[in-house]
């Protein structure tokens, strides 16, 4: 578990790494490829490790379960806001239920922290919920990433269909277009694309304003990456 530069969390924790979504703007894939080790994945395309390897990403960006990291939250006494899985999509369809449940168990063993989960595949939250496997803990937050209106239309019902005992949020990052939000979870994070990708898109101020105006009771958190567009008065609210 490491201190993070991500401004809405204090630490990131990666018991699982790797992702198959193939987003063109992915920073995690670039890092994983840089620190690629020599391990291969099994016939199921997955790798499980009980012990630490020399390389941080033994199978590059292929899905890897670092079981030896599961006790990291319980070893940290001071309460933290932990982004779980900054280098993966823990709820990707390729991730076995068993991996996710082991991660949930580790979180439950250290209830003094707040855990922020984030996925592009919120269908999996519902899927786990219907199986009675999605914890309804007050310190667990289930987020989904959206970047434009098409993403929003695809995913909003997934969060809306979770019970109110499950905390939810949107992470609109990188913001790639105007988004008209009908369903509003209690927390909305907004960020711009970073890095120097050739097709990088800069959000327009009016796209951000329309979200801020729509949020009457919901907390908005603007990431530092919005500063060049929004200016110095970034709104940075938490729902807790
Ligand atoms: S979902 Fe996240 S980790 Fe996966 S490819 Fe996209 S940006 Fe990278």
From TrEMBL:
Pfam families: DUF5131. This is Protein gp37. The lineage of its organism: Bacteria, Bacillati, Bacillota, Clostridia, Peptostreptococcales.
């Amino acid at each position: 578990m490491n201190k993070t530069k991500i401004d809405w969390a204090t630490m990131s924790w990666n018991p699982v790494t790797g992702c198959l979504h193939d987003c063109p703007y992915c920073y995690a894939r670039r890092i994983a490829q840089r620190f690629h080790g020599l391990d291969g994945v099994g016939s199921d395309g997955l790798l499980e490790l009980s012990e630490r390897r020399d390389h941080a990403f033994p199978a590059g960006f292929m899905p890897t379960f670092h079981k030896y990291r599961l006790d990291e939250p319980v070893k940290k006494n001071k309460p933290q806001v932990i982004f779980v899985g900054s280098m993966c999509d823990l709820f990707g369809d390729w991730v076995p239920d068993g991996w996710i449940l082991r991660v949930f168990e580790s979180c439950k063993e250290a209830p003094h922290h707040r855990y922020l989960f984030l996925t592009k595949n919120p269908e999996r939250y519902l899927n786990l919920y219907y199986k009675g496997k999605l914890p309804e803990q007050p310190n667990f937050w289930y987020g989904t990433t959206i970047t434009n209106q098409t993403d929003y239309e695809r995913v909003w019902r997934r969060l809306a269909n979770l019970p109110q005992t499950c905390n939810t949020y949107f992470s609109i990052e990188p913001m790639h277009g105007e988004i008209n939000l009908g369903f509003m979870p209690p927390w909305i994070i907004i960020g711009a694309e970073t890095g120097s990708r050739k097709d990088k898109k800069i959000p327009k101020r009016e796209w951000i304003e329309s979200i801020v105006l729509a949020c009457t009771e919901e907390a908005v958190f603007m990431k530092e990456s919005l500063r060049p567009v929004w200016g110095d008065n970034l709104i940075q609210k938490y729902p807790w």
